[in-house]
Amino acid sequence: MTWPQLQPPTTIVYPESDGKPMAESDLHRNLMLELIDGVDRRFQADPEFYVSGNLFIYYEEGHPEKAVAPDFFVVRGIPKGLRRVYKLWEEKKGPQVVIELTSPSTHLEDLGNKRAIYEQLQVQEYFIFDPEGLRFQPPFRGFALKQGALQPAPPASAAGGTIIYFSAVLGLELRGQGQSLRVVDPKTGTPLPTSRELERFLELEKKHAHTEKERADREKARASTEKERAEAEKERADAAERELSRLREELARLREN
Prior knowledge:
The chain is α+β, with helices and mostly antiparallel strands. The chain has two domains: 26-192, tt1808, chain A, CATH 3.90.1570; 194-257. The chain is built from five helices and 14 strands.
């Protein structure tokens, strides 16, 4: 009797990379990293605020072809941590905010297929920014989830070449101007600092502290010199007073004789 051979269960692989470059250009890469870094630092005290980008989101178990990799996305309500891929059926939550930095090779997909996928994932806010200003007019567009569909959203402001959207999920403004996309605290009007800006700020603080220390050291040295001078003056005055007293005593003795 011949027994049928049992086939081992098939292991489904969810790739971590598609072999393509991380970003279309240096400009796209820098903007993406600045967005991720700035927002992640802003919410570093919130243990359930996950910020990432250029990471595969697999949204249908058993189908590794069902994947999308936003340039930037935020998920509120899941623990922070390092992930190699994002499996929706394990995380139980999809991204609430997505930003795509569009390029010549992605702009049609960003407006079409990806927008449809994000709509399927019920992304609440979707933004597309064209840092080169060649694909879209206006170069910064926003969409908000309404009645289950990502519908075009008007910017909060579009004056002086700066297009501003307010993200209700983040509680922050997104300001697109030229090749720059900054995340801004609406209460202070101050952009979230990039790593380079923080480095420059810390370097300036270090230089300022060094200058202040040098100034304090000079003041201390001057005070020490003044103290020594005053002590020397006092010593001379005391010596003169002692000499005067001696002469008076000597004069008194001479008068007695």
